[in-house]
Amino acid sequence: MAYNAFDLTGKVALITGGNGGIGLGMADAIAQAGGDVCIWGTNETKNAAAVEQLKAHGTKVSSLTCNVANEKEVKDCFAETLSQYGRVDGCFANAGISSSKKSFLDIDDEEWHRMLGVNLDGVYYTLQAATRHMVERAENGDAGGRLVATASLAAISGAARNEHYAATKGGVISMIRALSVEFAGKGITANAILPGWIETAMTENAIGWQKFSDAVKPRIPAKRWGQPEDFGAIAVYIMSNASSYHTGDSFLIDGGYFLF
Predict the structure, then answer these.
(1) How far apart are CA 126 and CA 71, in angstroms?
(2) Where are the domains positioned within the chain?
(3) Looking at the domain that runs over 12-253, which CATH code has it been given?
(4) Active-site choice (3, 85, 124, 165)
(5) What is the pLDDT of residues 26-53, one digit of tens each?
(6) Which residues pair with 92 in a beta bridge?
């Protein structure tokens, strides 16, 4: 008999920033595994393109335009997601921004708070809405749920000239660990995903800079940049019944870069 714990039929995943990059890589794998997917993004054109790609797998797919830094938008979009799907089994708080690297001495207040608004406040708003829903379900006899946040290698390494970004990602890991302890009794797991150097729109300027590429790529034991599809399997695992006892973890997916 085939091992079917990774069959996601009947499960619903919400993925913020799911219209491209790592988020789309996770969404695509979840849809392939039979899961329904709602993606949130701020770019309607990218949202539509992502939905068309995901629909090819035959599951229910939709998108909503949402700025996760806005608490009201998050609440409204979560309510709409529930209206469309009836439930959310896994919430991936993946939306995030970066900025041009500059000295810590030159980061101004506006840039600091812009970074925190999306990368930390956005995760808080999104996961709080999802947790409330999952707790309510558990109290009505339907325990279980998956809280996931995309952090970064920058959270555990010395990200010089990127202190504001690193601070948000470190905060995400701490938030996830606290959630894993508080809500384990409700059957809710909470885990963080830490990407290394992944080839996406967010990193194209750095990876496309020859001097940077020549310095960094040889330090990756896997000898390549990561790709969005490298995050598909971990997303399916977390969404699946197989991960029900796995919580509070930080999955580092970086081709061995940190260890080397």
Answers:
(1) 8
(2) 12-253
(3) 3.40.50.720
(4) 165
(5) 999 999 999 999 999 999 999 999 999 9
(6) 15, 148
